[in-house]
Design goal:
Layout lengths: L6 H37 L3 H25 L1 H11 L6 H26 L10 H14 L3 H16 L4 H23 L9 H25 L17 H31 L5 H37 L3 H28 L1 H8 L3 H16 L1 H16 L4 H24 L13 H37 L1
Helix pairs in contact: 1-2, 1-7, 1-10, 1-11, 2-4, 2-5, 2-6, 2-8, 2-9, 2-10, 3-4, 3-6, 3-10, 4-6, 4-9, 5-8, 6-8, 7-8, 9-15, 10-11, 10-13, 10-14, 11-13, 11-14, 11-16, 12-13, 13-16, 14-16, 15-16
Subcellular location: Cell inner membrane
Pfam families: MatE (PF01554)
GO biological process, one term: monoatomic ion transport
Length: 464
């Protein structure tokens, strides 16, 4: 049936999306809160410890989000099966997603450990290099359980059961803060480990998240119809390959975005610990606000996928447009908030005056890209609901690796062999200008693609 933009229809769709998204939002904020706790606690030890966490977390974030994107195929697969009423197929899909998680997690752990070789080429102080490398070595122990957790996370969200994500993430945050407090500062007789304490805490919490989700799936009534652990099942390679074809482009899409942010963190390391620390704080707070449109996007995958599974592309288009509007609407509010309270935000994270001042300046750029960041993540998630993943991958690669990073390098580093480079390096500010423009390109191209894709599918269904 066609869906018109009447107030009652918009309200109904917005409420349905919000019911899916708000537990995801709380869970995402709690997860990002773990990184915030790491930065805030080490920020009150020493600049060197904070720099080690910043650099190690940059590599960790790149690997982690690439794994998360690769595992997101299960969201779309299960959502379509729910919409089609094929509940008997869901347990098989989840079991195969868990086999996929084992392989993806192992590969990610190897790559994470190898990536520490990059630190040898970043002009780092030996102490910072050693601490950042050890941070990555320790935290990589959480990649296999993280991949498995994301498989169960996607399954749960796509059957409209998102509250476990929230509860488990909150418990994980509390556990992370407690372990950090003991290990970072050396309480209760524990050694004062600084950045390495953060790594141990995060790895432990990832294992806790997986075990907690397994228990929840086992005992909650919502999973009984589709419970995936009724029997053992060996890998079914055609099914895993199908999920990889759907998930790898999503993983590359996530990599394209987060790797640029991570690369910027690595490239500005040459400007000293004050610049690195201020950049990391501004980026961390931006990640907090980004969780709202991302949560809407995760809900949109379920709403769009279920509509398409039941053969209703008109409702899928309507859900896409409402979700995109909600994401951009929130972004307006977050942009104003960041611009007005940037000095107070910086003061929460650090007591260093130089870091606070530079961080407040960088937060102005963060305020600028709120709208484009929200639009691009909402549009890309809706497109994934259509089981289309390659086009967003190409768009993200162009926007981030073709625009954001090259422009950031020109402005931030001012290489003398480029004629239009500034006379002096703009340092972190130049890289953030590149990020703003790259996100804008991604937002425009992805939103345009979504509008055309959803319209084409809706018209095709009407003509049949």
């Amino acid at each position: 049936m066609p869906y018109s933009f009447t107030l009652s229809n918009v309200r109904r769709e917005a409420l349905s999306l919000w019911q899916l998204a708000w537990p995801v939002l709380v869970g995402q904020l709690a997860t990002v809160g773990m990184a915030a706790a790491d930065v805030a606690m080490t920020g009150h030890t020493s600049a060197a410890e904070l720099a080690a966490v910043s650099l190690g977390a940059s590599v960790w974030s790149i690997i982690l989000l690439t794994v998360s994107g690769t595992m997101m195929a299960i969201n779309t697969v299960v959502a379509h099966e729910v919409g089609a009423g094929a509940f008997d197929k869901i347990p098989h899909s989840v079991r195969q997603a868990l086999w996929k998680a084992a392989g993806v997690g192992l590969i990610a752990a190897v790559l994470a450990n190898l990536s520490t070789l990059l630190f040898d080429h970043l002009y780092l102080a030996p102490e910072v290099n050693a601490r950042a490398s050890m941070f990555v070595h320790i935290i990589s122990a959480g990649l296999v359980p993280f991949a498995a957790y994301r498989a169960l996370y996607g399954y749960s969200a796509s059957i409209n059961h998102t509250k476990p994500v929230m509860v488990i993430a909150i418990l994980g945050l509390l556990l992370n803060v407690a372990i950090n407090w003991v290990l970072v500062f050396g309480h209760f007789g524990a050694p004062k480990m600084g950045a390495l304490g953060c790594a141990i805490a995060t790895a432990a919490v990832v294992w806790f998240d997986l075990l907690a989700m397994l228990v929840w799936v086992r005992i909650a009534p919502a999973y009984r119809q589709t419970y995936p652990f009724t029997r053992w099942e060996w890998p079914h390679w055609p099914e895993i390959w199908s999920m990889l074809k759907l998930g790898v482009p999503i993983g590359v899409t996530y990599f394209a975005e987060v790797s640029v942010f991570g690369a910027v963190s690595l490239l500005i390391a040459r400007f000293g610990v004050v610049t690195v620390s201020a950049h990391q704080i501004a980026l961390n707070f931006s990640s907090l606000t980004f969780m709202v449109p991302l949560s809407f996007g995760i809900g949109m995958i379920a709403r769009v996928g279920q509509a398409l599974g039941e053969g209703n592309p008109q409702r899928a288009r309507f859900a896409s447009l409402v979700g995109l509007s909600m994401s951009v609407g929130f972004a307006v509010l977050s942009a104003v908030f960041i611009a007005l309270f940037r000095h107070q935000i910086a003061a929460i994270y650090t007591s260093d005056p130089a870091v606070r001042e530079l961080c407040a300046h960088l937060l102005l750029f963060a305020a600028l890209f709120q709208l484009s960041d929200a639009a691009q993540v909402a549009a890309s998630c809706a497109i994934r609901g259509y089981k289309v993943t390659r086009a967003p991958m190409v768009i993200q690669l162009i926007a981030f690796w073709g625009v954001a990073l090259p422009l950031g390098c020109v402005l931030g580093l001012a290489p003398d062999w480029i004629p239009f480079a500034p006379a002096t390096p703009m340092s972190a500010s130049g890289f953030w200008i590149g990020l703003v423009l790259g996100l804008t390109v991604a937002a425009v191209l992805l939103s345009t693609y979504l509008l055309r894709l959803s319209k084409r599918r809706a018209l095709a269904a009407t003509e049949q």
